[in-house]
Amino acid sequence: MLAAAALGACGGGSDSGGGDTDVTWAVSSGWESWNENTADGNTSYLHQALSPGTTALGDFDQDAQWVFNDALLAKAPELTSESPMTVAYTLNENAQWSDGDPFDVDDFIYIWHQMSGKAEHCDQTQCLPASTDWGANVASIEQEGDVVTMTYVDGYLDPEWQYFQTPMYPAHIAEANGFPDWATDPAQMGGSATWFTQNAPTWSTGPYKPVDASPGEFVAFEPNENYQGSTKPGLDKLTMKVVEGTEAIITELRQGSIDGAWPSEFSQEELDKVADDEAVTTEVYEGSIWLHIDTNMNNTFLADQALRQAVFTAIDNKDIIAKAYPDTEVEPRLNHFFNQQSEFFVDALGATDPLQGSGDEAAANEALEAAGYTTGDTLMTPEGEPVTLNFRYGEGDATRTLAGELVQSYLAEIGIDVKLEAIPDGQLGTVLSEGDFDLVIFGWSGTPAFTTAPQQYFGSDSSSNFGQFRLDGLDEAIAKVRSTTDIAEAAQFANDVEAMVVPQAFTLPVFDEPQSTVYLNGALAGIVANGNSQAGPMWNIQEWKPA
């Protein structure tokens, strides 16, 4: 999902004397939670801020190939059985946390209990998992020697079984902070999840460990002396610092107060300011973040499918792109699960009638009149109420702000009064999880993996289903996506889900957001742009070094 203060004595940018082992990297927005696996902590910004020390079993490289984390695993995971589906993880014999405590089966079980969605594992008012698609289907996790074996429930299959990317949290830290019985007491498990939400990490299995932090402001890292990866960290200090917005990022980069950034908002205007600066490297590439506009089914007006369809028909995706990214080749997003470059792409939006994202006011009005609405300067419901909505967007993000202003103008043309309400920095997760919106624009950060997305976006029990979307038969259709080990068959099932949800006009895909990475080439080397990782250029942070 994708959602500051100045940092004091936490290091700065490089000086004019070449490479710097004390690096500051900007993150575009803040965060409120420290637990990535909860609905409100599942943001791109927190993930970026914690990426130097995060505990994940692997990631996608710049060529969309899966690379296992050799600090934790001795080799790639293995599928040892399909009935029941069983996956074996052979641990690096020295796998450990930064405090020297072993990384082992307890850490797998801990994250399973947090992500299962089951009351017997965790108090669900506290665990609040971002998705239960994986955890709900695990039957057992055991360890023998260096091999952790994960067995799934009978009948469950997953074509992307090897792509385990869930950030893992240390069970022994939970035990040391008052939750010794987390594995058997759902109340303690819930309490530990809340503790991880409220407390900044001091642990790591990554190349760097956190040494100081402030929520929504910064995380400072130093090398993890117990890191077991094959590539040792090359920086003496690394600070992930919030700098709100691309304009501010470029300003601080030119001043030398930061060394680089992966801006969440693509701005050609800002990038042009450093285009001729030989000290700055700028890379532009296709990324994994795509913007969408969601409806809230708890809104009295938007509970009506006909109104949702008309709203999405009045919105002009191509016009938003033309005004946000003039003279670029950015294309509209036409499918929730696959972009136009995917072999599994189907134009789902193009099959809608009236045509969503087209900006066709006449078609929108015609559909409304057919549903009993009175059109004109003020749209009236069949019951005689004027339709009014709010539209939420990230404060300080020029693209999302522009989109809000355009949506306001599009909907005014069909008689809907829209009030624009900015979301303060760092509060996107809270606004979404509390359903504090009628319409909202934000970004999902994806990867080449797709099979968990249908459940996360549209599952009736998903805490990331912020709009409370419901449809008879939808959960059953979603379950089929992970009922096979055949990736093409799973993709067809995902497109079947797509064919169900798109006509409902729950959420409107707008476009795949272009990505950029900017950094001082006199300060840093080893940075590889990666549009396939949710960590962006931080995916190989262990390989960063002074220039």
From TrEMBL:
UniProt xrefs under PANTHER family: PERIPLASMIC BINDING COMPONENT OF ABC TRANSPORTER
GO molecular function: peptide transmembrane transporter activity
Residue span(s) of domain Solute-binding protein family: 73-463
Gene Ontology CC annotations of this record: ATP-binding cassette (ABC) transporter complex; periplasmic space
An example Gene Ontology biological process: peptide transport
One Pfam family named in its UniProt record: SBP_bac_5
Organism domain of life: Bacteria
Protein name: Solute-binding protein family 5 domain-containing protein
CDD domains in the record: PBP2_Lpqw
Biological source species: Glycomyces algeriensis
